[in-house]
Amino acid sequence: MRRTRFDDAACPIARSLDQIGDWWSLLIVRDALDGARRFTEFQKRLGLAKNILSARLSKLVAHGILRLEPASDGSAYQEYVLTEKGESLRLVLMALRQWGEDFLFAPDDRPLPHVVKASGKPLGPLEITHPKPRKLGPRDVEVLKELDD
Amino acid sequence: MRRTRFDDAACPIARSLDQIGDWWSLLIVRDALDGARRFTEFQKRLGLAKNILSARLSKLVAHGILRLEPASDGSAYQEYVLTEKGESLRLVLMALRQWGEDFLFAPDDRPLPHVVKASGKPLGPLEITHPKPRKLGPRDVEVLKELDD
DNA sequence: CCGTATCCATTCCGATACTG
DNA sequence: CAGTATCGGAATGGATACGG
């Protein structure tokens, strides 16, 4: 596409999109946040072609969003784990999730709730803060896998 | 590319990306939030080809993120204004901005600060809330155009 | 199991020319 | 000013075949 690069743009949003603004990267990060670490695991979850998964993973590693690590089990392979930079995308994903929940689902087709781990209670909206104390960290929340009420 | 569609995915993030997950849409929304309304205005700010701007704007209108409105001045043309759905993307953009600010700028190349309109003070991080009261709305903040300290 | 390599279709992007 | 039309090139995406 010979896309214009945004990597040196003055705007942080443009720079961000340059690194993760394509169709698959954020979904890969989403699954990584959900515990996926192996190539085939990502492939199975996302259902995308292996060559493009390979390319995306490499790009994410190159940008320091994922990092390669020796497999946690005995296998000779490596695993893709999130760096701090990658972990921090959780907030972006949450914003995207809340927007989607609010505007992209019909009343009779609700998404799985996003809840606070400790309490199991659904999240409130993201809030903008003055430079003030924090409430809850991104790690404190999770998305329910199924409805078991 | 024959990309897989996410518009009926179970995951809100996937659905969101289906509507605004391309290279230009969020930047268009960014500029709309910043006051841009006219075709040429977007084109000038973004520096993208007119045909693709045209396609993106149409798509955003089709998705109910932008809406066409008779020009506010005398001209016979129309203007692109954000719907509530589009306005709500402000939070997503803020998350993206904060991530970019945190990880994509060198110490000697800081981005323009994002401040609270009323106080002029820089924003704190987005926070996750329990179902609790709100603090500051997305409309209360702005990005400085230049540094005049 | 974990990828890389190859092939082909699609579509995205940018530039330019053109209309009202 | 506000687009539409057309063009070529590049990157993306999916499928499959192949190798460690």
**What is the tally of helical segments of chain A?**
6
The assigned structural class of chain A equals alpha+beta
Shape of chain A: globular
* H/E series of chain A: HHHHEEHHEE
Strand order of the largest sheet of chain A: 1-2
Query: What would you report as the Rg of chain A, rounded to the nearest angstrom?
Result: 17 Å
Total beta-strand segments of chain A: 4
Which chain pair has the greatest contact? A-B, 61 and 61 residues
What is the helix fraction of residues of chain A, given as a range? Answer: 25-40%
In whole angstroms, how far apart are the ends of chain A?
A: 48 Å
Strand content of chain A: 5-15%
Which quaternary structure do these chains form? Answer: homodimer
pLDDT averaged over residues of chain A? 87
- How many strands, which pairing sense, and closed or not: the largest β-sheet of chain A? 2 strands, antiparallel
